[in-house]
Design brief:
single chain, alpha+beta, six-stranded mixed sheet, six-stranded antiparallel sheet, 10 helices, 51% helix
Length: 426
């Protein structure tokens, strides 16, 4: 019985060790709390300071770095005025990713008081507790960090594309919420994960971020529609009141004298002309929008062609050992291309701008093929041979050959220019 109890007591003591071993498996700490960072605390830097690569002139110290808190290891300067402290402090550190490192994702653990922006190799990675839009050295964080939140590490996951093999520079700026802030705290831990399951968490976090952004867009759209509706309602109310008053006033004046009625008739005629001018302006605006849509549709055709090229490259690289992610990517590209309706959209916008030119050309020359009709449309849009070849995925010489066939079908002689003919064609 004693041996059995002793055996179970040993297992019980080993359980915490086994638990910690399981947790640490598949990950490596690249940056720890307490590591040394370079920092700048002598005023403000330029807004593009994170493009800097040499930090040898900066001071250095161990994290947590800051001022005004008991947990601070490296104390930094906050400026010359306690009541008007500098808003932003700057930190930087170099890390090296081994060539044989098989990292699947990275986990950032950030302690910041108040807000922070993290840059990797000169590009913003993410921001925390900071407003959207352009950031300067005087931009303040969104909220004040107080109490237990000052000791909290905020976690963020990313895939392995954020770092390159070899030297990488992490640049961080900490922003205060107000110039009278009592403390500033910065520390960062960076964990590299080799377990592929981390990608599931990365995707989940990215989806949550995407959903938050979509929710913000929905709120902004709702506010815009609400404001627009209220504005329209006020206009309708005002118009209704004006019409009632005008009707009553005209009735009274018509009873008194015909001449006054004539004056109001002339005023009405003037209003009618103004309305016609307004309608004309609106039609012109619609026409301009259709032209913009033509440009956008053309760009989409470029992007679709680019997708086809990417798909071809991926398909060429596909082997029996190709991972599932690559196969899924190819399937997604195929789905996008199969559901492509950009040609039809471009045709609709083109007809709207050029008075059914596409359909009229087909009626006048029914032997033209769909590809030749598209070719005529691009010529009408003043597109060059290389641009047309790019969209139609053909050799530029094939474009020249197609033009020769189109001229024959349009019964044009060699001296007649196809471009001028299509531009002048109504």
């Amino acid at each position: 019985m004693k041996k059995t109890r002793f055996f179970y007591s040993k297992i019980f003591l080993l359980l915490p060790f086994l638990f910690l071993t399981i947790i640490s498996y598949g990950q490596e700490s690249l940056i720890k709390n307490g590591d040394t960072w370079s920092y700048f605390d002598q005023g403000y830097l330029k807004n593009d300071w994170f493009l800097k690569k040499d930090f040898s002139t900066w001071k250095s110290g161990s994290t947590p770095i800051g001022y005004g808190d008991r947990i601070i290891i490296t104390k930094i300067n906050f400026g010359s005025n306690k009541k008007n402290k500098e808003i932003t402090k700057y930190f930087s550190k170099e890390i090296y990713i081994k060539e044989n490192a098989n990292y699947k994702g990275y986990e950032f653990k950030l302690r910041r008081d108040d807000g922070a922006i993290i840059y990797v190799n000169g590009k913003e990675l993410y921001r925390d507790n900071m407003p959207e839009g352009h950031i300067t050295s005087l931009t303040r964080s969104e909220n004040v960090v107080e109490g237990v939140n000052e000791d909290k590490f905020y976690t963020k996951l990313f895939d392995n594309s954020i770092f390159k093999k070899g030297k990488n520079i992490i640049s961080i700026e900490i922003h205060q919420c107000n110039a009278a802030s009592s403390d500033c705290i910065f520390s960062l831990e960076l964990i590299a994960h080799t377990d592929p399951n981390i990608l599931t968490k990365v995707i989940k976090e990215q989806l949550e971020t995407k959903n938050k952004l979509e929710a913000k867009i929905d709120v902004l759209n709702y506010k815009f529609l609400l404001k627009n509706s209220l504005t329209q309602l006020e206009i309708y109310k005002s118009t209704n009141q004006n019409l009632k008053f005008l009707f009553f006033f005209m009735c009274c004046l018509l009873v008194v004298v015909v001449a006054i009625g004539l004056i109001f008739y002339l005023r009405y005629k003037k209003n009618y002309i103004d309305i016609e001018n307004t309608v004309k302006e609106l039609k012109n605006e619609i026409l301009d929008k259709e032209k913009e849509m033509i440009s956008l549709s053309t760009q989409l055709l470029y992007y679709n062609q680019y997708l086809k090229e990417i798909k071809a490259d991926l398909s060429f690289a596909k082997t029996e050992n190709t991972n599932k992610t690559l196969k899924d990517t190819i399937k997604q590209i195929e789905y996008i291309l199969e559901n492509d309706n950009e040609w039809e959209l471009l045709k609709q916008h083109f007809n709207a701008v050029y008075a059914n030119f596409y359909d009229n050309l087909l009626i006048k020359f029914p032997t033209l093929t769909e590809t030749e009709l598209r070719h005529c449309m691009f010529i009408k849009l003043h597109m060059q041979t290389k641009e047309i070849a790019r969209i139609l995925n053909v050799d530029p010489r094939s474009v020249q050959t197609s033009r020769y066939r189109i001229k024959k079908k349009l019964a044009l002689n060699e001296e007649q220019d196809l471009r001028n003919y299509l531009i002048e064609l109504q």
